[in-house]
Amino acid sequence: MIRTVKPKNARAKRALEKREPKLVENVKRALFVPGESSSQYLHDVCVELGNLKKPYVKRFQRKNKVRCFEDASSLEFLAEKNDSSLVVVATHSKKRPHTLTFARTFNYKVYDMVELSVLRESSRLMSELRGESAAAGIAAAQVGLNPMFSFQGALFDTHPVYRQLKSLFMDFFRGDRAHDEQHNLQDVAGLQHVISLTVGEPETEETTPPLLFRVYRLRTYRSEGQKLPRVELVETGPRLDFKVGRVHTPEPDLVREAHVRAKQTLGAPQVKNVERDSMGDKFGRVHLGKQELMKLQTRKMKGLKSKFDQTPGEDDPEISDDSYGEDFTTATDIDVAPPAKKKQRK
Q1: Helices (H), the chain
Q2: Domain extents for the chain?
Q3: Who contacts 151 (Cβ-Cβ below 8 Å, separation ≥6)?
Q4: How many of the other CB atoms lie within 10 Å of CB of 33?
Q5: Phi, psi (5° rounding) for residue 22?
Q6: What CATH number labels 25-260?
Q7: pTM (predicted TM-score)
Q8: pLDDT digits (tens, 9 = 90+) for 118-151
Q9: What InterPro entries would the database entry show (predicted)?
Q10: What is the rounded CA–CA span in Å between residue 29 and residue 89?
């Protein structure tokens, strides 16, 4: 790991402050590293993948001795030195030809890695498809625009490896999140290309299905009798077919630490049992316990005592005033004394 040093000037201090943790993190940068034994074809693939990631990308020209699955220390060193959370290592060998290793880091430590081998026979680069797109009048997408993702296949939701691949590619080509707030789906100019990932058919039952990577350019046409335009997809490349190789899954403790969110980004806490209707009026819900009305404390007066309760039936005689006893008096029998006069001061 790189040792921490005290900044000697204001420029170095500003550079270190940019790397400090923030409430809203910066856009993840991608670093393309050619391995100890690479090929020209992998170099062209990395160039075209880097064009989709621009301007948050950096590419090495010289080869580096990096063995991701054997020793990840060199990978972590390059990620920390170049301030890159995403690293792609290109290697070529007889056992694993034309292989790209996609790695993600958290706190400059390897989070997860996936090894994908490019099937050269069925893959085509952007330069090979340029003639078809140029004939159709399609230009490349503008730099910095975020793509739309399309995942086709049930394995992206059920299989753990393909769920990891889905998260990896979305994290790799996501771009600036602040740009998503400015350009939504209602802005046609803000959406120019689509990245499609499809799970192919496996060769045998024992092998994993290949991963088909496609990039399309959106083109709109005027539709007769409708306000919305007609949208068509034109493939611009690169067209890559990947074979899934070795996979390194993150540890549970690291996953728990990486998914922690600051309280400031969670917004206002949700108040329980309070709702708002479509008009904006607030409604509250109050939960009470069981109410025992028989034990309810009432005014202590003679007429409310239980022994004076009368529940006559249909065959019972009518109740007269004499049935209450001698103590019962009507309102006319009560003598009310006049109020006493106040003494006037002399």
Answers
A1: 10-18, 40-53, 73-81, 126-135, 155-158, 160-172, 177-182, 252-258
A2: 25-260
A3: 166, 197, 198
A4: 27
A5: -130, 160
A6: 3.40.50.10480
A7: 0.71
A8: 999 989 988 888 766 544 555 666 777 888 899 9
A9: Brix, Rpf2
A10: 14
